Amino acid sequence: MKKATRVSNEVGIRNLCEVASLILRTMPVNAATTFTVRTLMREAVNKSNSSYRGNDNKKNVRYVSAAAVPHLAQKGPVVAEHLIPISVLLNSRLYAAVDPVVETDALVHLAKQYANMALISVEEDALLRKHKLQSTMPANWDGADLFARYRAVGIEVFPIEEIGNKELTERAPQVLD
What we know:
alpha+beta, 4 strands
């Protein structure tokens, strides 16, 4: 077997989306194809993040919740997650299409649209689960508001560059010892 050549993120994203498109065009939708397309699109979405730094999602986030900030300083548990869940991308955009042909360019566009991630606390992740918003968007979602799930349950997120911001630090709850 020939050794694989390393490619740029742009080429990698396109390759992943091309394979997903091929599967969607040529194979029936079932558990195996859904899993494969989900995996391909998750990786394409992750690589679409402009600050992509490998497969560790905690290094690829653009946003952080105020409640997660104290955990970062103490290297405590935090959850890295997509602002709009991958399942929303797949369920509403790919499998609901009237035209069964899903073009590679459309998948690349979707991957880039869904690339934003946030670090939230474990407690906030549990709050999303409690409100059944871990893998869905709120029923009244307009299709554009990236932060709709967080707003629905009262999670405040900020660009990660603002971690040193005094206002954010003051808003962050203290971690109990």
